[in-house]
Amino acid sequence: MSADERFKGCHFPKCVVLQVVYYYLRFALSYRDIEELMQDRNVPVDHATIQRWVVTYSSKLEKQFRKKKSPVGNSWRMDETYIRVKKDWYYLYRAVDKAGQTIDFLFTKHRDTKAAKRFFKKASLLIQWLNIRQF
Prior knowledge:
Layout: H1 3-6, H2 14-26, H3 31-40, H4 47-68, E1 76-85, E2 88-97, E3 102-108, H5 113-134
Antiparallel strand pairs: 1-2, 2-3
Helix pairs in contact: 2-4, 3-4
Keywords: DNA recombination, DNA-binding, Transposition
GO molecular function, one term: DNA binding
InterPro entries: DDE_dom, IS_Transposase, Transpos_IS6
């Protein structure tokens, strides 16, 4: 499926949709905040439409980003850190290769053993997949 077919039937240009999804994923903004930002730019889009775009396109964008991710080494380490974000404490798990490149990460409010194990499994599968794609 080409990029233009993914946006077929959308009433807004592809660049507007991608910009809105980027705002939501990159910054800590609500759908209504983004709606207001877009109204300042003379783009009348509703917060419910923004929510649908985020749900529809965020997973597709993640798949595209993972395809373009740089290759990593066979050896990797796990890094667990407890950090403070806006007066709340969170756990940050990172899978890091020898060169210090982040392979993947998990950001959670609570220390959850099941979630951490799922993350370890996902990171190891991702590394195997990336190593296969290098050849």
